[in-house]
UniProtKB/TrEMBL annotation:
<feature type="active site">
    <location>
        <position position="74"/>
    </location>
</feature>
<dbReference type="Pfam" id="PF12627">
    <property type="entry name" value="PolyA_pol_RNAbd"/>
</dbReference>
<dbReference type="GO" id="GO:0003723">
    <property type="term" value="F:RNA binding"/>
</dbReference>
<keyword id="KW-0507">mRNA processing</keyword>
<dbReference type="GO" id="GO:0043633">
    <property type="term" value="P:polyadenylation-dependent RNA catabolic process"/>
</dbReference>
<feature type="region of interest" description="Disordered">
    <location>
        <begin position="428"/>
        <end position="454"/>
    </location>
</feature>
<dbReference type="GO" id="GO:0005524">
    <property type="term" value="F:ATP binding"/>
</dbReference>
<dbReference type="GO" id="GO:1990817">
    <property type="term" value="F:poly(A) RNA polymerase activity"/>
</dbReference>
<feature type="active site">
    <location>
        <position position="152"/>
    </location>
</feature>
<dbReference type="InterPro" id="IPR002646">
    <property type="entry name" value="PolA_pol_head_dom"/>
</dbReference>
<dbReference type="InterPro" id="IPR010206">
    <property type="entry name" value="PolA_pol_I"/>
</dbReference>
<comment type="similarity">
    <text>Belongs to the tRNA nucleotidyltransferase/poly(A) polymerase family.</text>
</comment>
<dbReference type="Pfam" id="PF01743">
    <property type="entry name" value="PolyA_pol"/>
</dbReference>
<dbReference type="InterPro" id="IPR052191">
    <property type="entry name" value="tRNA_ntf/polyA_polymerase_I"/>
</dbReference>
<dbReference type="GO" id="GO:0006397">
    <property type="term" value="P:mRNA processing"/>
</dbReference>
<feature type="domain" description="tRNA nucleotidyltransferase/poly(A) polymerase RNA and SrmB- binding">
    <location>
        <begin position="210"/>
        <end position="271"/>
    </location>
</feature>
<protein>
    <recommendedName>
        <fullName>Poly(A) polymerase I</fullName>
        <ecNumber>2.7.7.19</ecNumber>
    </recommendedName>
</protein>
Amino acid sequence: MPMNTNDDTSSEMVSYPELALNVITRDEHTISRKQISDNALKVLYRLQGAGFDAFLVGGGVRDLLLGQRPKDFDIATNATPEQIKHLFRNCRLIGRRFRLAHIMFGRDIIEVATFRGHHQEPSQNVAQQSKEGMLLRDNVYGTVDEDAERRDFTINSMYYNIADYSIHDYARGIDDLEDKLVRLIGDPQTRYREDPVRMLRAIRFAVKLDFDIEEDTAEPIEHMAYLLRDIPAARLYEESLKLLQAGYGLETYHLLREYNLFQQLFPSISEQFTPDYHSQTEQMLDLVLDSTDMRIEEGKRINPAFMFAAMLWYPMLAIAQNLMNQRGFSYYDAVMEASNLILDEQIKTIAIPRRHTATVREIWQLQLRLPRRNGKRAMRLMELNKFRAGFDFLEMRGEVEGGETATLAKWWATFQNAGREMRQAMVNDLDHATPSKSPRRKRPPRKKKSPAKS
Ligand code: ATP
Ligand code: MG
């Protein structure tokens, strides 16, 4: 028989809400096995066959009840990670904060978590809290009802039971689904302190599902947003992609900003914010997030580096401008130095991986090179790896800045579509057009160099 590793009569540090189980039988709900992936079903049945409890839980249940396609299927069970590993050859145990089993079916991964229990006396050293009340380690196993209390929102706390196809609803998630409400389980301030990322998740689900955030859940966010400073930058990087690159980036950014959350994630961007939302930085945010959303809708590829390059460009230029004004940097040197400064600062909150910051730099450097098209330069630029990204970004800048930048973007658009002769003519035109603006600098012959002063 499966065992419960936790005795639920033990004393607790944090008081948890009393949740009442509401069982919705198979003919009272709309979820059918056909909507669940074969791999998830395989895992559920294998666990059940071995005598364990096995539930589909979280976003899988929520999205199916809403008639949407779940992004992934998460499973919860009373089998321990080791017991799970025994049952599945294709199983990997992962995670430090939470120990989880990943069952691998090629590229499809089914995540299986052992029920988590209440944290007990700190001396037990299995669940630890920081001074701010944040959970640092969290590996106490428990029962399914304890597991339900530990989940973030009521709509994420419904369990589809493979034993009888019923749904176990512990926190009245069904009612909140009906009312389209994102509501934290338990006392909001305590729950945010335990894990400040829940504030970001509240915004994410509200936008993704088109729900409201319930009043008591919404109220503390603005004042607790600063707690995100304690979250490791690697985790916030993952979250930032889920927030901004999952199809609803534009709306999510606006809501994050209203709740003072965006400001914690991107401090140097928010320095440029204005009351009327109309700075170049803000215009660019709208443009790039909207275009990202559209690309996702059209099934096109998206690159996080492009988004970060666009988001940080004008804040970077503001720093560069300071370096020119106050320290006499040339434009080129100022942009190079400002690029370093702003990326170093940004990765303190959001750990953008190095391969992406390298691309951000390339896209920025191309902005300096794209105006210089004389001779063979234009053709050579087009051969560069990141030319397309650099050009796409130039077009966005053209929309924000108008003027010369817009003209330059048009030139490049025409040039790319032109044939060989037309291209040559376009370059020739440049050479003859406005020599004052882009002079062909000839290197002075060496011999004429002025003699050293004696
Ligand atoms: P989606 O996968 O569509 O983004 P989801 O609800 O499945 O949404 P996951 O991040 O996959 O979200 O997490 C699965 C489940 O784990 C959640 O539904 C929730 O029950 C629980 N969970 C995830 N993160 C937390 C958290 N920070 N605090 C408490 N519970 C959480
Ligand atoms: Mg999920």
